[in-house]
Amino acid sequence: MKNKIEKLIFIVTLSIIVTSCHDDLDQSPIDPDSFTEENVYANSDEAKSALAKLYAGFALTGQDGPAGNPDLDPDDIDEGFSQYTRTMFYLSELTTDHAVLGWGDAGVPDLHGMYWTPNNDFTNSMYNRLGQEVSFCNSFIDNAQVLSDNEDVQNFIAEARFLRAFAYYNLLDLFGAVPIQTEVATTLPTQNTKEEVFDFIESELLEIQDLLLNSNEYGRVDNVAAWALLSKLYLNAEVWTGIPHYTDCVTYSNNVMNSSYIINMNDGNGNGTAYDELFLADNNTNGAQNEFIFALNFDGIQSQTYGGTTFLVHASVGGSMDPTDFGVDGGWGGIRTTKSLVEKFETSEIDIPSLNSGLGGTLSDWGLVGDATENGWDSPDMEMYETSTNQFSLYAELTDGFMKFRFNEDWGNNYGDTGADGSLEQAGENIAITAGTYLITFDLDNLTYEITEVLPSGDMRAMFYTDGQSLEIESIPPFDQGYAITKFKNIDINGNPGSGTGQDNRVDTDLPLIRLAEIYLNYAEASLRGGGGDLGTAAAKINELRTRAYGGPSGNISSGDLDLDFILDERSRELYWECQRRTDLVRYNYFTTSNYLWPFKGNQPNGTAVGAYRNVFPIPSNTLSTNPNLTQNEGY
């Protein structure tokens, strides 16, 4: 079981959103098991427990996991839908070429079709969730001041300010002009411009970069997180303010790249790539954590939710997929991807004649025979290459069945493996084979053999399930239309399932919100956009990611290969389903325009442009009705 940062506790009343008054913050919580404000801030240990609630605001949905005592009004949205990363996935991936969801829940088709309104459940939930996080942070910062002479509490306050800045980063990205609140308000707030929100986030991060710890315990942010969020902020500055900050993006990306965080290259499960280990149940200990700059911690027992990676794993499993391969008890048969993502990956078929020609030696009378080969038991052998005296090899594509080694098609001189121990016996038992492409070697002197599966070359970040799935999507609801994604799993590097059990078992896998790979790509893009970075360094950093993806240098590039579209596609390959895609497409002016189309964009099977005003989401209608100081975003 994973150790999470602290027990999560209730510190403020539950109905607070960014547009509401906060008189009730002076009241004691109703829950008798929760701390009151009086003893929450009695000492630094209690304050640390209160800090955990601020982190939990992004990971959980209420006080009783996985549901039952929600932070947001359940009359507005189902608690399971309202979790931050699940809602962010809906807004950032379902609205793009990366994902489709076949469920008919109100508001979901609107996101695919890009015809959402100010009453959409998921845009409203995100606005309220982020506003509530701001309120939680403001309350903590205000109340923790009583312990501000304590060095630990000073660090806690800096972390709270980071989390508040991160909430505002999301509000700016998704909604544009929103109210800035830095204290518990007693009056309805007024609306700030996008430029003012940007300036606030920037000033907060610049101020706390020296207040945050240089290194923190896993699950909490440090000063590198402030630099990383500045990198993200500056990369998008021109979209939000009209003023480019690409030089600043390069500067703070450099700070991150020169920190102690490293790209995970630890291939602990021996599959040829360490990429998949970023998204396994033990990613807090398997080496992936060294790449995670800001991540949400999940535990199948201690921090339960219907969102987070529980949603990403369960909802990705359906059709002929075996849920146990993903460490869960069942799939929800929901999310898949479009061909637009699939076709971004560079893969190649295995060229068996070319591989065999590279073996050296000459064809011999020793060969493979059996139901597993393209021949039958009574057909001619697949002759092997004698690479040196009495040493034979062959690349072969085999089907399910059995095989043996036979000389000159003579059943009086054949070898099998009795006991399946890798050694051969005259007239031994048939050797069982499952379908695949293999390198088979045969040592006649020692009567031993090896059968090694050969995987297609190319980008192993392409983690798709295709059996029974069509590449084309003619209708979104059926799960078998669109390839399934196998990126997130609730198993560890040894194949053991996570800790959650029972119906809809919850998932242990942590979810990175910012990781080092993203900052590499920020640096490269900002450099290309005139930020003054070194393209040689950019290519070298991207080659780290591609070496991991290809299991070697075969996918490496040169600085001359770098252009903006390459970087966008590389972001897609590296960061898909990590809630980055919508922001990237907006920055490239591809989200709403006809410059880039994907299936069902604009509610058309082949895609169409939509109004540019949809580059931001609407302020919720009920928020506008309760606060006349706010103005709806243009177009809604």
Description:
The chain is built from 18 helices and 15 strands. The protein has helices at residues 37-40, 44-59, 84-92, 108-113, 121-144, 151-175, 194-208, 223-235, 237-241, 246-257, 308-314, 339-342, 352-357, 516-531, 535-550, 564-575, 581-587, 621-626; strands at 100-101, 292-296, 335-336, 362-369, 382-388, 391-398, 401-407, 410-416, 425-426, 431-433, 436-443, 448-453, 464-465, 484-485, 511-515. Among the domains are: 23-212 and 575-587, Alpha Horseshoe (Serine Threonine Protein Phosphatase 5, Tetratricopeptide repeat); 352-453, Immunoglobulin-like, CATH 2.60.40. The strands form 4 sheets. Strands 4, 5, 6, 7, 8, 9, 10, 11 and 12 form a 9-stranded antiparallel β-sheet that branches. The protein has a two-stranded antiparallel sheet with strand order 1-3. The protein has 636 residues and is of the alpha+beta class. Helix content is 32%, strand content 12%.
CATH architecture of the domain at 23-212 and 575-587: Alpha Horseshoe
Per the CATH scheme, the topology name of the domain at 23-212 and 575-587 is Serine Threonine Protein Phosphatase 5, Tetratricopeptide repeat
| Gyration radius over CA | 28 Å
The fraction of residues assigned to DSSP E strands is 5-15%
DSSP summary, beta strand count:
15
Low-confidence segments, given as residue ranges, are: 1-36
CATH class of the domain at 23-212 and 575-587: Mainly Alpha
Count of helical stretches: 18
Overall mean pLDDT = 88
Determine the structural class based on helices, strands and strand pairing: alpha+beta
**Principal-axes shape call:** elongated
Share of residues in helices? 25-40%
Distance between the termini: 47 Å
Mind describing the biggest β-sheet?
A: 9 strands, antiparallel
